[in-house]
Specification:
By secondary structure, this protein is mainly alpha-helical. It has two domains: 29 residues, no CATH class; 92 residues, no CATH class. Helix content is 67%, strand content 9%. It contains five helices and four strands. A hairpin with a 2-residue loop joins β1 and β2. α3 runs antiparallel to α4 and α4 runs antiparallel to α5.
């Protein structure tokens, strides 16, 4: 029997069907054999996985009190995460996920700008107090 470009040889073997072809699983409805090369991660998958890990590290750090909402480490992780996921989504496009990650990235940049502005104002305020104390 021919299936596609490969021949499938079916021979009886103690009352059971024995096949000799890599495409035999398709002809008889059995699960496909696992190809080792197909189980490896693509670079896009790896970048996406890094994005997921950074998102979870940021969230866990905030929840357990290791980060504050204006901590630069937290904000950096929240920028790195959607950036990595957007790179991954270029390979396997999903509109809803892209919209979510673009908004997440934009909101994280707003948070970073606010945190940097607050730090600069705090530094200016402390500098002014130091100058008052010296005079």
């Amino acid at each position: 029997m021919l299936y596609g470009d490969s021949a499938v040889e079916v021979t009886p073997c103690r009352g059971k069907t024995k096949t000799t072809s890599s495409m035999a699983h398709v002809a008889f409805g059995a699960p496909a054999p696992i190809n080792f090369l197909q189980t490896l991660m693509t670079p896009s998958d790896l970048v996406g996985l890094i994005g997921v890990i950074t998102c979870l590290v940021a969230y866990a750090g905030l929840q357990v009190g290791r980060f504050q909402h204006d901590d630069l480490r937290y904000l950096g992780l929240n920028i790195l995460s959607p950036a990595c996921l957007l790179i991954s989504l270029m390979h396997d496009f999903n509109l809803a996920a892209v919209i979510t990650q673009v908004l997440w990235l934009g909101l994280s940049f707003i948070g970073l700008l606010r945190a940097m502005y607050a730090r600069s104002r705090k530094t200016e305020h402390l500098s002014a107090k130091c100058a008052e104390n010296k005079t």
